[in-house]
Each structure stands twice: as C-alpha cells, then as structure tokens.
Amino acid sequence: MKITAITPFVAWIGFRNQMLVKVEADNGQTGWGESGLSSREQAVAGTVIHFREFLIGRDPRRMGALWQEMYRGQYFEGGRVLAAAISAIDIALHDLVAKSLGVPVYELLGGAHRDRVECFACIPNNAPPADYRALAKKLVDAEWNSVRTGFAAAAGGNYTDPADTTYDVRTAGVTTSEGLLAVRDAMGPSTMIGCDVHHRLSVAEAATWLQRLPAGTLDYVEEPIRDESPEAYEALRRLTDVPFAIGEEFASKWAFKPYIERNILQFARVDICNVGGFTEASKVAAMAEANYIDLLLHNPLGPICTAASVHLAAATPNFSYLESRTSPTESLPTVDDDVFPTRLYLADNAYPLPTAPGLGIEVNEDVLQASPPKLWEPPRLWRSDGSYTNW
Length: 391
Known about the structure:
Blueprint: E1 3-13, E2 16-25, E3 30-35, H1 41-55, H2 63-72, H3 80-101, E4 116-122, H4 132-141, E5 146-150, E6 166-167, H5 169-187, E7 192-196, H6 203-212, E8 220-222, H7 230-237, E9 244-246, H8 253-261, E10 267-268, H9 272-275, H10 277-290, E11 294-297, H11 303-314, E12 319-323, E13 326-327, E14 330-331, E15 350-352, H12 365-369, E16 381-383, E17 388-389
Parallel strand pairs: 4-5, 4-12, 5-7, 6-16, 7-8, 8-9, 9-10, 10-11, 11-12
Antiparallel strand pairs: 1-2, 2-3, 4-15, 13-14, 16-17
Helix pairs in contact: 1-3, 2-3, 3-10, 4-5, 6-7, 8-10
C-alpha cells in the first residue's frame, strides 16, 4: 500500500475555520485528519503541502517512522505549526490504515479499555457568572457529573462583544468566584468542577484568586498562567493546593516532559490535533500513566478531532474526561451535518465505543469545497491602562 495523494482543506464551518487533511492510498482507501492551531490554519496548510512532497509513494502503515521524518525532516525541528500539520496527517494515516484492516482506530492502539468515553460539559465562556447556577442546574437534571467554567473576561464575563474588551483581573476574579460557588452549590460535592483561566493571570494574581476560594470549590484549575516556564508553575504550586490541568498548547512529548516528571500538572490536557496525532499522544499518555496522571482531553474543534479523541480515550487506561462542546449548557456551531454526514454522537454524557472501521467519520468534499475559509482573529483583551493581555 502506498500514499497517492495528500490534500489540505481549510473551510469555514460554524463560527471559524477547520483545517482538514485527506490522505489517499493506491488501494482506494482514504483517511481524514484535523489540525489544531486555530486562526493560523493557512500556515498549517502550507506545511502539509511541504510534507506531501516526500510522503507521496510512502507506505501509510509506517505511521511512527513517517512521524519521525516529518518532525525531524527539516533543520528547524518541532514547533506548533509543524506539530499541527503532523497531527492532521498522522490522524488521517491511522484512519486510512484502520479502514484497510476493517477495524476501529483504537484497535491499532492496543484495544479498548472502556465501553464509553465520558465527557465534561462547558458553561459558555461568554455566560455571565450570575447565570452559572441555572446552567449548572440544567446539567444536574441531565445527570452530567463533570463541568468546566471559564474565567470572566470582564465584569459581565462577555468577551464576544467587540465593545467589551477591557480586562480587570480583580473584578473578573470576584465574578468568577461567585459563579463557581453557585455551581458547586447547585451540583453538589461529587461533581468534578474545573475553571479554565485561559492563561490570563500572573503567578501572584492566580495565587491570590485561588487562595480566596473556599477549599473544595475546584477540582482543578486549567492553565491559570502561561506555560513557557515550568518554574513559574512550580512557584504557583507552592502557593495553592488546587490541582492543575495543563497542556492543550503543548506540541510534543518534550513539552510535557518537565510538567510530568516534576509533578507540576495533575491532569494532562492533551490535544490530539496539536500534540502530534495518535503517535505522539499515545507516548504522552504513557508518560503520564507512569506518574499517575490522567488525561483530560482538549476537544474544541470539529467532528474529526472529536472522533480521534474518542479513540485515544478508549485506548488509554489513564483517561479522565473528554471535553464536549455539546451539552445542555452549550452547543457550538462546529458540526455541519452536510459536511460530516457520518460522525460520532453523544449518548447522554458520553460517546459509546465506536465500532465502524477507522475513525467512524465521513466527509462530503463537495460541501467542504463550497465552504471557503475566512481570515479571522480571536478576541482581543486589554487592561484598563491600555496594555494588551492574553485572551
């Protein structure tokens, strides 16, 4: 079996672009993958075209060897753009090979550990914390047992309004804390509750905010500060006992290495479309397992990312929850049934174990090609003094 074509597609689906890759083989099989690195899809598509030049004619079953060549095949190794392109191609190769064998992808990864992949729900980032109690009650009524909130960007918590871009850390901390206390009160002590801070805080700001939360409010805080410095996270660890969920931006096992080996993170937020596909995500999972760390999978993209994450979760013993952007509290327009006529569907708060060959995804290329990409930018936030800060 040999690769005959690799085609990148950047298409506007829902509220942003999705970067998909199709790999074809001479036996008539095709595989589909998806890239992360949202809002910089054109850079990833260009990298896929570079990789295509030496992948045509190669054996798609040698996924691990091809991963090494893609990662190390230029003088400047690694980085998020290269890793996002590798991720999409690696996922597509696994889809193609599994289809050729007539098995689900998780069978290539050692087989399934579970019958269903449970998810956590998201309270929308633009929801005012005053609404958190009512939203949490919806989840209780639907028997969801894990939820994550956002960290308010402004007094109203709304960063989607172009006129509301001022970020005040103390106001945001107060409003977020009030919302989290309401969620804990509504959902009870057995629910797993997290808060995604989107790396907006400094060490001091994060410590002050977390220290003022009553004990037991949070089961984890996600990315309270930026991830470039493990030492900064170690400083924050000394100032709080709330577990950390870190890693959705990491683009290799080497990025995870200090965080896992030095016990800085307690949940690994692996994104299969950013970290390097199945080949690299499986290695990160094994590293995490050796340190008794569970995977809390990042899944904000489209149905291919979701399907790949479900297969990874199924085959990973140390798995906790998969992020779901579809729940009683949220339904992001990232799924277009015209583009994806066959995909995975939630059953209550979990994805049943897939049984179809490959990822279990079909793509309508005609509709995909009729959805041209748009250049878009994430929200922008400024502090009250006019300086730029993280979204």
